Amino acid sequence: MPSLKTRLAAGVAALIGAVSVCASSPSPALAAGPHLEISYDTAGEIDNSGRLVGAYAYNWGDEPASDVTMTFDASGLRDVDISVPDWIEYCGLDGQIVTCRLPGLAAEHTEWLHVFELKSKQQARPGPAGAVKGTMRGFGPDGTEYTGGGELDVTIVASGPDLVASTADINSADDPVGGGDVRPVTAAIFNDGDTPTGDWYVQVSVPTGAGIVEQYSDCEYRDWWPGEHPAGYVYGPNVVTCRAPADLELEAGEGLAFVDDAGESLFHVAFGKNLRGPDQTGGAVEVGLVEDLESERASSKLSRKGASGKSFADAVAGLKPVTRAALREGNTDNNWADFAIWTKPNKQDFAVTAEPVSGSIGEIVEIPYTVINNGPADGGAGWTFRAPTGTVLVSDGADDRPWCYFVDDDGRPVKELPEVRCSTEGEFPAKASGYQGVSATMKLRIISTPGDDGTLRVRPFPENSEANPANDEVKLVVTVGSGGSGGDGGGLPVTGANPALVGGIGGGVVAIGAALVLFARRRRVVVVSE
Q1: What is the pLDDT of residues 158-189, one digit of tens each?
Q2: 339: burial class by Cβ within 10 Å (0-12, 13-18, 19+)?
Q3: Cα 105–chain centre separation
Q4: How far apart are CA 375 and CA 234, in angstroms?
Q5: 215: exposed, middle or buried (Cβ count in 10 Å: 0-12, 13-18, 19+)
Q6: Any idea which of 35-49, 130-144, 301-315 has the lowest mean pLDDT?
Q7: Strand order in 163-167's β-sheet?
Q8: pTM for the complete prediction?
C-alpha cells in the first residue's frame, strides 16, 4: 500500500487540478431545486498507516444551494480512528463527527475535496468495520432547506508488522558529559503492527567525539574517522548495526527493552576529550526489517565487525519480551527515536596559513592556504577572504575550490568579489581524528599595485570556544613582480606565530558527508516507560 505521504501528495495535486469539476457520469433527470448527494473517492479499505478520504459533493438539481455543510459520523465504526489533518481548513472534528463547510454549490455541479483521514487501531481485527454516515445540507434560493447523503463502508485490512523505536536522553543539561565519561543507552523496540516481525535489526548511532563501547562479534560497526587516535580521543565506532537472532520474532504488541534484569544496558557510549562543548548534540536508535537493511549500509572501508568474543545474539537472549501498555500510531516514521546528549565545555584551536604570491598587473594568481583544527575539541568553522586593495577574488567556476561561495546579496552567482566566505558546512574534527583540514588555493586577479590590507580569517563556531585566537587570521601578501606567482615561506600572522603548513584533505571529506547525512534525520524523543 502506498504511504500516507505519497497518497497525500497525489491528493493535493488532484485537489489543485480538480477543486471544481463537472460530474463525469451521466446525471439523472434534473430535480426541482437543489438535489444533494455524497460519494467517496475510496473503496474504504484501511490499515494503521492511515488513508486520506476525499468526497464528491453533488447538486443534481436545477437550482443552486447555499450555506452547504457536509457531516460525516464515524461513531458506528469499530477499531477505527477518524481525524482531520491541520491543512484541511474547511473541515473540523468534534469527537467522531467531521463537519465541512462549502459557501455554495451551483446547479448541475460537483465539488471534490479532502474531508478526513481514517486509520485502524493497533492490532485491529481485519474485516468489516461499519460505515461512515455522510449527511449534506444546503438552502435553495427561497430559503428552503434541502438534504442528502451517502455512506462509506469501511473494511480493515492487515497492516503487517510496524517496528517502533523508543529511547531516553543519554543525560541532562544539569549532568553534562565530557572526556572519560561513559553512559548507557536506554532503548526499547516494539511491534505495533498486527503480524509478527520476521527478521529485524537494531541500529544505534552516536556523534563525533563519542563511541559505542560494546564490540559484539556478530554486529557491524562504522567509524566516521577510522584509524588509530591519541589516547583520550574517541572517534567511534559511531554506528553499530545488529541483526536479531532468526528465532527472535516480535509478535503483534510485543517488544524488547535493551536492559537486562540487573538494569544493565546492552549498549553504552564513551566520550572523548575531543567532544565539543558546551553543546547539545545527540544520537539515535533505529529498528527495521532486515530486508530493508542493505540500502542503509556504509561503504566497506568504513565498516567492520566487532572485536570481542561476545555476540549480540547471546546478549539479547537473556531479555524478556514485554508488551506495550499504550500503543502508538503505526507508521515508518517511528522507526527512529532520537536521544539528546549535553556536553561539557571544551576548547578548539583553529589556525590558518596563506603563502605570499607575486604576479603582474592583470594576472590571476593562486594563493595556497590551509585551515586546520589543532584541537583538542572537534568543532566547526568557516573562513573569510578579504582581497587586498588593488585586487579582486576570482571564482574557480562550479568547483569554487571547493568550499567558497561567489554569490551576490541576492544569492546569484558572480565571477569576482572583494570578499568571499567559505565553509565545510559541517563538523571540523581535530587533527587527532586523522583529518588534516582544508588545504587549497584561492584565485586573485591583480588590478593595480596591491595594498597590505588583505586578510584570511577563520571563524570558529562557537567563537567563545576558541583556545588560541592569535592564529585565527593572517595577511594576504600579494606583490607585483616579474617572476610570476610563487614565493617562499608562510603568510604573515596579524598576531602570534605561524603554524606549520599541513597539506592534504584525504578521506575526511567523505566522512564529513556521511556524518551530515546521518544526523540530518532528527525525530522526536520518546521516553521509555515501564
Answers
A1: 877 888 899 999 999 999 999 999 999 999 99
A2: buried
A3: 43
A4: 13
A5: middle
A6: 301-315
A7: 163-167, 187-191, 254-257, 322-323
A8: 0.62
